[in-house]
Amino acid sequence: MTDLRARVERVVREVVAELTASGALRPGPAPETVGSRTPLVAANWKMHKTAAEARTFVAKLRLSDGVETVLCPPAVLLPVLAAALPPGNPVRLGAQNVHFEAQGAFTGEHSCAMLRDAGATYVVVGHSERRSLFGETDHDVARKAAAALRAGLRPIVCVGERLAERESGATFRVLRAQLTASLAGLGLPSPDPATLVVAYEPVWAIGTGRNATAAQAQEALAFLRDRLAELFGHAWTRGVRLLYGGSATAKNAPELAAQPDVDGFLVGGASLDPAAFGAILAATAAARRGREAG
Ligand code: 13P
């Protein structure tokens, strides 16, 4: 039944995309978020920090106005952070992974409902470390993203090419294939484009100290936004946040965040230190002010 629904949704999306591309179907009125995407900066702590270290981080972190801040700790630290954050604070929490089933004999896994219970609003799916170290396929990612949306969690869907793929000129073919397959079967567009976030994380930039240039990041994210528009329509897609990830730092964030399709960052190493992460938040806020002024 779920498969049938997914197939029907995919066919409907393809027909809508074709009609839109041919000009026969004009996109509907723009949602209110169009043109005013709130930047989002997410910390992916990966397998780092104890409860005490997480509390210290929160106590030291300085937020920046106008930037949505998301902390994605190891799942066991979600309730710790939820308790450590002062009531009414704007920080949102995210998980780094989820299982697509609602419950069952899946030793070591967490369901969407469990993550929501623990305080998560977002969940990272399809991170390249999950893909390469744990064998996750695009199909797994699509099931996780769909389960998250159904459960009211916002998926941050990661895509990105390997170095050999970039060097052989396959970047855009890889990105198109990953994006399309990772989003297959989602019940989008939803009324609120903020329910989906896509992160472009070139594998060669993750943890290497070698970030994509601003031009490379912009080119990839503009490409991904165009593909999203083919799938879900232009008006809705203009409200979707697209992030860059891969050796993002306070030093390179200003130039990257100034790009029109860079709506924020998914930060690994630099998110472990509250000062370094706070500086990325500040750089993102400043870049947004600059873009609005210019
Ligand atoms: P680094 O910022 O350490 O390169 O990691 C990026 C990343 O994988 C975020 O998900």
Please give the alpha-carbon distance between the first and last residues: 50 Å
The fraction of residues in strands falls at: 5-15%
Under CATH, the homologous superfamily reads: Aldolase class I
Rg estimate, integer Å = 18 Å
CATH architecture: Alpha-Beta Barrel
Strand order across the biggest sheet?
1-2-3-4-5-6-7-8
Order of helices and strands: HEHEHEHEHHEHHEHHEHEH
Total domain modules? 1
Q: Based on Cα principal axes, name the global outline.
A: globular
Give me the CATH fold name: TIM Barrel
The beta-strand count equals: 8
The residue-averaged pLDDT reads 91
What does the model show?
- With 294 residues, the chain is of the alpha/beta class.
- It has one domain: TIM Barrel (Alpha-Beta Barrel).
- It is 44% helix and 13% strand.
- The chain has 12 helices and 8 strands.
- Strands 1-2-3-4-5-6-7-8 form an 8-stranded parallel β-barrel, surrounded by 5 helices.
- Helix 3 links the parallel strand 2 and strand 3.
- Helix 1 crosses helix 9, helix 6 packs across helix 8 and helix 8 packs across helix 9.
- The radius of gyration is 18 Å and the shape is globular.
- The chain starts with a helix and ends with a helix.
- The site of 1,3-dihydroxyacetonephosphate (13P) has 14 residues, from strand 8.
- 1,3-dihydroxyacetonephosphate binds next to strand 8.
Compact summary:
It contains twelve helices and eight strands. The protein is of the alpha/beta class. 1,3-dihydroxyacetonephosphate (13P) binds at residues 44, 127, 201, 206-207, 245-248, 266-270.
